[in-house]
Write a structure and sequence with these properties.
Layout: E1 18-20, H1 30-47, E2 55-58, H2 68-80, E3 87-90, H3 107-120, E4 132-139, E5 142-148, E6 154-156, E7 165-168, E8 174-182, E9 185-189, E10 198-201, E11 211-213, E12 222-223
Parallel strand pairs: 1-2, 2-3
Antiparallel strand pairs: 4-5, 5-9, 6-11, 7-8, 7-10, 8-9, 10-12
Length: about 240
């Protein structure tokens, strides 16, 4: 706990905000992290006077943990902390190394954190976030995903078709899918799923997907279903 930990002596000192990069050791306990991480942010803010100081964090990068779904769920738990005010998250799915838990591409991570601070703290007119998935519709055997944000239109960082999309039917079994960009939408389908009900993107521990916005920032992993997680109950 903070009161007994190494940060407690620093409570009286002033600072502008926090940047945070952690979560690799929590990949098997996403449901726990979904509660503990926001609680930590709120606890720090309370101990430093109650102000909602900026708290910007990095979503963990691709790495082959041997636990594909668990890691994906941890990233989802990190994303849920954005419900707190004055928070921001940096996506690193395009700059990780599946064979190195400490990827060498540090500069893009710092630059993306700086964009959040420039926009939110210093009032600069910069684009700090990639497009985010805002809704889906079913069109025959395809799912059409709609995206929102200032970083539109969508593109890919390698000029290829979007990768790492999966589609599931009512049986809740996901299958690899093909995807096509159309402005602020992505059309996703699989030959083996005739009646799709859900889509997920980059839902794997070592996924290095390629979907991005026109500003160059990568789209983060997501799922449209709310089916039980494999880490539910792991505390």
């Amino acid at each position: 706990q903070l009161a007994n930990g190494m940060l407690a002596p620093f409570v009286p000192y002033a600072f502008q905000g926090v940047i945070w990069y952690q979560g690799e050791s929590n990949v098997t306990r996403a449901s726990q992290y979904e509660l503990l991480f926001p609680a930590m942010i709120e606890d720090w803010r309370a101990r430093w006077g109650g102000d909602a100081f900026p708290f910007y964090f990095v979503q963990i990068a691709p790495y082959d943990y041997g636990m594909p779904m668990q890691c994906a769920e941890l990233r989802e738990a990190q994303t849920s902390a954005l419900r707190l005010p004055e928070t921001g998250m940096v996506v690193t799915m395009d700059v990780g190394d599946p064979k190195d838990i400490h990827p060498r591409a540090k500069q893009p991570v710092g630059e993306r954190l700086a964009l959040l601070a420039k926009r939110n703290v210093y009032g600069r007119d910069v684009i700090a976030e990639a497009p985010s998935m805002a809704g889906m519709t079913i069109d025959g055997d395809a799912v059409v995903l709609r995206f929102t944000g200032r970083c539109l239109p969508l593109t890919t960082n390698d000029d290829a078709a979007p990768t790492h999309f999966e589609v599931a039917g009512a049986d809740q079994v996901y299958h690899p899918a093909t995807a096509r960009i159309d402005g602020d939408m992505v059309r996703v389908r699989s030959d083996v799923v005739s009646d799709p009900v859900a889509v997920r993107y980059a839902w794997h521990d070592a996924a290095v997907p390629n979907l991005a916005g026109a500003c160059g920032l990568p789209v983060g992993p997501f799922r449209t279903d709310r089916w039980p997680r494999v880490t539910d109950g792991n505390w």
